[in-house]
From TrEMBL:
The gene is frr. Responsible for the release of ribosomes from messenger RNA at the termination of protein biosynthesis. May increase the efficiency of translation by recycling ribosomes from one round of translation to another. Gene3D superfamilies: 3.30.1360.40, Ribosome-recycling factor. Keywords: Cytoplasm, Protein biosynthesis. It comes from Hydrogenophaga atypica. Residues 21-184 form the Ribosome recycling factor domain. It holds the Pfam family RRF. Belongs to the RRF family. InterPro entries: Ribosome_recyc_fac, Ribosome_recyc_fac_dom, RRF_sf. This is Ribosome-recycling factor. It is found in: Cytoplasm. PANTHER family: MITOCHONDRIAL RIBOSOME RECYCLING FACTOR PSEUDO 1, RIBOSOME RECYCLING FACTOR. The lineage of its organism: Bacteria, Pseudomonadati, Pseudomonadota, Betaproteobacteria, Burkholderiales.
Length: 186
């Protein structure tokens, strides 16, 4: 593996860490309704547990309500039960074929707890990026040790890897600040 391949591979993995972090942030509840909030809910569908999005259509009815329209008539009660039993603290109500999932208003205390969760997720993402930097630097050092690259190449590569790391850390900080602002907005 060459230094360029190491840098490209590390950059790609760092971007994947950022994407995973963004995905984790969508699951943190803000005051607004978001159909992605129900991505973690699984429903019993003929004996197997499947994601809610595979048995129903998820839509936004308004800023504080998610609409769940089951594709089969008999699934309504199972979907309602699955949402109620999830750890999201939601209380769905059935209206004919449509299940309405209102988002309860969050207390100030709950908002502060969620900002701590977001900061923790952000710190985990930063740790993942820093671990990728360390692994890349070790790979470059191994190339130098095996006489496949010069020490000057090593210094340049480490500087480039550090720049990529700094860029990703700043991006994570911006994402955390943005999500905190979302959570604290009443």
């Amino acid at each position: 593996m060459t230094i360029d391949e190491i840098k490209k591979n590390t950059d790609h993995k760092m971007q994947q860490s950022i994407e995973a972090f963004k995905n984790a942030l969508t699951r943190v509840r803000t005051g607004r309704a978001n159909p992605q909030l129900l991505d973690t809910v699984h429903v019993d569908y003929y004996g197997s547990m499947v994601p809610l999005s595979q048995v129903a259509n998820l839509t936004l009815i308004d800023a504080r309500t998610i609409g769940v329209a089951p594709w089969e008539k008999g699934m309504g009660a199972k979907i309602e039960k699955a949402i109620r039993e999830s750890d999201l603290g939601l209380n769905p109500s059935s209206q004919g074929d449509l299940i309405r999932v209102p988002m309860p208003p969050m207390s100030e205390e709950r908002r502060k707890e969620l900002t701590k969760v977001v900061r923790g997720e952000g710190e985990n993402a930063k740790i993942a990026v820093r671990n990728l930097r360390r692994d890349a630097n070790e790979s470059v050092k191994k190339l130098v040790k095996d006489k496949l690259a010069s020490e000057d190449d090593q210094k340049r590569a480490e500087a480039d890897i550090q720049k990529a790391t700094d860029k990703r850390i700043v991006e994570i900080d911006h994402l955390v600040a943005s999500k905190e602002q979302d959570i604290l907005a009443v």
